[in-house]
Amino acid sequence: MQKTIFISGGAGYVGSKLVEFSLKKNLKVVCYDNLVYGKGSIQKFLKKKNFIFIKGDIRDKKKLKKVFQLYKIDFVVNLASIVGDKQCQTIPKTAYEVNFLGNKYLTEISKSKRVKKFVFASTCSNYGIVNPNEYADEKSELFPVSLYAESKIDCEKYLIDQSNKNFSVTILRFATAYGVSNRTRFDLTINSFTYEALKYKKLHIFAKETWRPFIHVDDMCLMILKVLDIKGSKLNGLVLNAGFTSNNFSKQAIIEKIKKNVKNLKVEYVDAIIDRRDYRVNCDKIYKFLKIKQNKSINQGIKEIIFNIKNKSIKERDIKNNLLDNNCKKLQQFYKY
Ligand SMILES: NC(=O)c1ccc[n+]([C@@H]2O[C@H](COP(=O)([O-])OP(=O)(O)OC[C@H]3O[C@@H](n4cnc5c(N)ncnc54)[C@H](O)[C@@H]3O)[C@@H](O)[C@H]2O)c1
Question: Considering its fold, how many domains does the chain have in total?
């Protein structure tokens, strides 16, 4: 029988790709989003028979309840969030409400409606700073350096507490994403560096020695869908670093990869500013469970960004709208701060 997946934040960077992949898998998709960044990312799905869009706020308990009464939901993937350190700082009270309370309401309703699996998108940012040469694993101490990470950690604790044999919760601590989606974000390291390199042929990079784990947006979606596919209770109550251990890189190493794709690129390294997010993450545990190999490398991600900008599939206007500062302005306007 056809299964129904509820994707909150389904119009976002990850969400709009997950919608696409879910429809390809013949899932019925209920996409729930308040459209902070508009509807463009899901426009092409609106006429599809297995796609239902509901405009709503994840903090709107009544609306969520109605939707869950109307549709028999099998799986819930919560991607609705104010995403990023600066974004959360820009609208702190709302950000915590959306990230924590919104997730709590969605959990309560999912549990009462006997949803089979609940997947929560957390972040490797929870690790904050990790000793150089050490890789954080799921047992490592968390050291959040932002409200964003704090809100995600609170959600994790809450969800683990809520999971039981009838309510299966899996928490994926995602690495930093890259690559093209139906709403490609340009406030993310690899995407924004690639865009700036292409446009200005010049990059100013601070804290070049800081490390991060990375993952292609397609691989994020494949991992989520694999979690939903795995039968039984193996993944219930688990927190998994979601990325690939071999895909941790320093900013400088990323720049070297971009240099190979953008001719005559000048790079100026600025050491004065410290980046408080510096961590390498071990993702061996998720591989043990999901057996998913990396589908798209950083080099492929860089190339597809360049290709889509050059052939104008991604327009300059869309890039500008999705740069960090504009993204924060958009949030301020939308949430009336
Ligand atoms: N992109 C990454 O690098 C990354 C890394 C780790 C974790 N994550 C997590 O993955 C999830 C998706 O991230 P993304 O990159 O797609 O971000 P995004 O900002 O593109 O998507 C978030 C979506 O949530 C929606 N939203 C915001 N507030 C809402 C509300 N109150 N009610 C309903 N919908 C609301 C937005 O309209 C947007 O479509 C988030 O939970 C994020 O924390 C992302």
Answer: 1
